User: What shape does this take?
Amino acid sequence: MSLTIYQMAYSPFCIPITEALRACGVPFETKEIPNWDRSELLRLTNGEYYQVPVLVHDSRIVTESNAGSEDIAHYVDQHFAKGRLFPERLDGLQQIVIEFLSDDVEFQTFRLLDPHTLDKITDPVARGLFLRHKERKFGRGCVEQWRRDAAAIRAEADRLLGRFETTLRHSPFLFGDAPVYSDFLLYGVLGNLTYGGHNRLNAEQGALQKWSERLHRFTFA
Assistant: This one.
């Protein structure tokens, strides 16, 4: 079997896929895609897709069908996790958590990392393409605005993450004794936030820290 994940290592939507595969004990390879150069993805998908992650399982290429889908996660669940990422008993309820993480929480956390990502890009063309990608969606000067507003953005991120901190003080994982996809998605959001050590969990987020370590050690039986 051949399994390859095309990713950006800091992506909050790539980290959940690779971490779930690791928990399943599935061997896989990763290929890193620069944010400013998606040409390899375009060649792979015959010009039809340029987002990450992309999963290639033997000869099958799996992408998302729309901006809000979890097609790749469901594929991993069906082929490798034996339905444990999306158990039927959590249908509906888990989707509420997934959408909250993907829309509300991630909107705060990615803006705390992006200025640091930009700082590491030394090539002027790559830097310009990174900025163009961001500014087309969020407006001219958005990255520098996020840099200036970092304290306020972090405060809002911490407020939203507080709901998970409270939950995880009383439960090993978000919905009980074993992780589901929303655990891996939260792990991805935090992995993006803390990537490169520029942002860290604070002293009031001890349950999140212990949960993160517990999830990284977890393997499905």
Q: What stands out?
A: The first helix runs from residue 15 to 24. The two ends are 21 Å apart (CA to CA). The chain has nine helices and four strands. Residues 165 and 205 are 6 Å apart (CA to CA).
